[in-house]
Write a structure and sequence with these properties.
With 537 residues, the chain is an alpha/beta fold. The protein contains 20 helices and 8 strands. The protein has a 5-stranded mixed sheet with strand order 1-5-6-3-2, with helices on both faces. Strands 4-8-7 form a 3-stranded mixed sheet, with helices on one face. Strand 7 and strand 8 form a beta hairpin. Helix 7 packs antiparallel against helix 11 and helix 13 packs parallel to helix 19. The longest helix has 24 residues. The N terminus is likely disordered.
């Protein structure tokens, strides 16, 4: 069968998808095998418990056999992570210029925009699926390149799901830049102080407190207990909506010597006395963040100790008084004038962990934000409109293109005899017509039902119907059958770029980003070949 030939070709491409070649005689993508392949090749937090994080990445402090290790370190609930994307590297200045469009102002993500002394840009490296954050220091910062590289390399050894990890640096002439994971969902300050649609619910505030405490405890256990200027702007939210601590605060500040940029009212008293940051200073700053979480405002520590009246009025009737009392008492301990009277990072986690009462609710749901989708990596050749839409995972644009294309790519895929034009055939085409109307009108569930009626008869095969139903499944958040349909379209029309493009989007939805990138590049290559052939004829 033609399907067997198509699927056999996966073996020569050294791709995980070659497992589909072992289908039964029907030839394409039976769901039980598909689901097993996904389980074997993809860490998916909703479907499968991950191995502890320190099995994936080096962790020096693994001799703690306490049953609460996962609670203390925050490893059990770690987000989906691709360890290979965490290799600490030196980047060239040209790479980072390309990633940030020559450090365009449009790419600035610093809270204070171009007024910030050391700007942070978002960017995307060529042929990489992940966005990055690039911190660009002023010319006078870090005059000693050796000191900068040593400091960056030390922070770069840290790897934890509660950190926005440092993944590289650039030290080129006078230029000093840090490269970290990009967190697309703003800062705690934005969500607490400048929210638009909804404030952060109580359970999510408790999660923020716990996750940042876990991050600090991890850094302390790894021999880096100092964090400079811990505040609500240093807490970032990743694509899942999970809070993470920015790695930039772990860098010892440059020769300006300033470790606190906030108002003196929020600065640890010992820092005011001697200008030194100590582990106890970090605990004090954590106490100020707890006050922010309790009040929804940036309240000076002198106004917030032992005072339940500071509670955010937007949370009235929506929080536990007992839990709030625990947090207020912990904040009070953190804000003690004498450093030796403050708790340590393990005490923070031990106190906050029992308050984490909604572990199964995803953070992006509690924040009220859509989950960010990761697009396939940048392809190696120019893309058509369909390719661009798929690379952005823009399902709306893909829908518009498929509606406009109609069935012109189906020509030659069916040769029907006169005898096949039966009543059943007419009914089948009527089902397809109803599916087309529903697809055009964005009634995707109805489109799936009618396209399924057309497909189930089996007298006529249409790659376009499979591609359209694949998109319908994606829009209904069903990437498994979407991938099966995209592969079925390829079985019918082996060199059809659209079939490869739809597979790319479905694979990306399944978090199989390397396969998605490969498929996107194959689609672009097929499209380029098709266009060359058309010009030659």
């Amino acid at each position: 069968m033609i399907c067997d030939n198509i699927l056999a070709s996966f073996n020569t491409r050294d791709r995980k998808l070659r497992v589909f070649r072992e289908r039964n005689k029907m030839g394409c993508c039976q769901s039980s095998l598909f689901r097993r392949r996904v389980r074997e090749n993809h860490h998916h937090p909703e479907k499968q418990q991950q191995q502890p994080y320190h099995h994936q990445l080096p962790h020096r402090n693994n001799n703690n056999n306490n049953n609460n290790l996962n609670q203390i370190d925050g490893e059990k609930e770690s987000a989906t992570v691709d360890p290979s994307s965490f290799t600490f590297s030196e980047f060239s200045l040209s790479d980072l210029k390309a990633a940030t469009n020559n450090f365009s102002s449009e790419y600035i993500v610093s809270e204070s925009g171009e007024k910030a002394p050391n700007l942070v840009y978002k960017g995307r490296l060529q042929n990489q699926k992940r966005w990055i954050a690039v911190k660009k220091f002023s010319k006078a910062a870090w005059p000693d390149p050796k000191q900068f590289v040593e400091e960056a390399s030390g922070v770069g050894k840290l790897r934890h799901p509660r950190l926005a990890n440092l993944i590289g640096y650039c030290c080129d002439g006078d230029e000093r830049l840090l490269v970290a994971e990009f967190m697309p969902n703003d800062t705690l300050a934005k969500h607490l102080f400048h929210w638009e649609n909804q404030t952060i619910e109580w359970a999510m505030r408790l999660r923020v407190a716990l996750y940042i405490a876990q991050a600090l405890h991890y850094c302390t256990s790894e021999g880096r207990p100092l964090y400079h200027d811990l505040n609500a702007y240093r807490v970032l939210f990743d694509e899942e909506g999970d809070p993470r601590l920015s790695c930039f605060g772990l860098m010892k500040n440059s020769r300006d010597g300033k470790s606190y940029s906030t108002n003196l009212a929020y600065t640890p008293p010992e820092y005011l006395r001697n200008g030194r940051v100590t582990p106890e200073s970090v605990i004090y700053s954590f106490g100020t963040v707890l006050l922010d979480l309790l009040s929804g405002k940036h309240i000076p520590p002198s106004h917030g100790k032992n005072n339940m009246l500071l509670m955010d009025s937007h949370l009235e009737g929506k929080f536990s008084t007992e839990e709030a009392t625990v947090v207020v008492n912990l904040a009070s301990k953190c804000l003690q004038y004498e450093p030796r009277e403050r708790p340590n990072t393990k005490d923070l986690v031990t106190t906050l962990a029992p308050l984490h009462t909604k572990p199964d609710v995803r953070s992006h749901i509690m924040l009220g934000i859509p989950k960010q989708e990761e697009a396939p990596s940048t392809p190696q050749r120019p893309l058509s409109a369909m390719g661009e839409a798929c690379s952005r995972m823009d399902l709306t644009a893909i829908h518009q293109i498929l509606v406009a294309t109609h069935y012109r790519d189906d020509e030659g895929t069916n040769e029907l005899s006169f005898q096949e034009w039966t009543q059943q055939m007419r009914d089948m085409l009527e089902a397809r017509k109803r599916g087309d109307y529903a697809f055009r009108d964005k009634d995707f569930k109805t489109a799936i039902d009618n396209y399924s009626q057309f497909i189930d008869v089996g007298t006529m095969v249409s790659p376009t119907v499979f591609a359209r139903r694949s998109l319908c499944y994606l829009l209904c958040d069903q990437p498994d059958p979407a991938l099966r349909d995209a592969m079925q379209a390829q079985c019918v029309y082996p060199d059809w770029p659209t079939a490869f493009y739809m597979q790319s989007v479905a694979l990306a939805k399944l978090d199989m980003h390397k396969d998605a990138a490969d498929m996107l590049n194959e689609a672009a290559a097929l499209e380029e070949k098709k266009q060359r052939g058309a010009r030659g004829s």
